UniProtKB/TrEMBL annotation:
This is Ribonuclease. It comes from Stenotrophomonas nitritireducens. Keywords: Hydrolase, Nuclease. It comes from the Bacteria. Residues 26-100 are annotated as: Disordered.
Length: 100
């Protein structure tokens, strides 16, 4: 009597597991974009910038951030602490080549 009960329990658990997997794999219902029938928002006009005017950076930024932003605005070069060092390939992930 114990073996049929064990098989029935295993079959019920298997069916429940398969049903749960199927329910979890269904894609979510589609989400549609809001309709554009309402009134349009007014266009934002950008004030012309004066030549030579610069936007001040926020005062809460540290001095390093000011330097980094200046480098980004100039377009580089961006120094790195390991510039000029020799690459060791200690992990042996790159193929071995003869020196020279």
């Amino acid at each position: 009597m114990r073996k049929p009960l064990l098989l029935l329990t295993a079959a019920i658990l298997l069916v429940a597991g398969l049903w749960a997997m199927r329910a979890l794999q269904q894609p979510p219902p589609p989400q549609f974009a809001p309709s554009l029938d309402g009134p349009a928002a007014p266009a934002v006009t950008e004030e012309p910038r004066q030549p030579g005017a610069t936007d001040p950076l926020p005062a809460f930024l540290p001095p390093e951030a000011h330097d980094t932003i200046a480098l980004v605005l100039r377009g580089g070069p961006f120094p790195h602490r390991q510039d000029g060092s020799v690459f060791g390939n200690r992990e042996r992930r790159l193929p071995q080549r003869p020196r020279g």
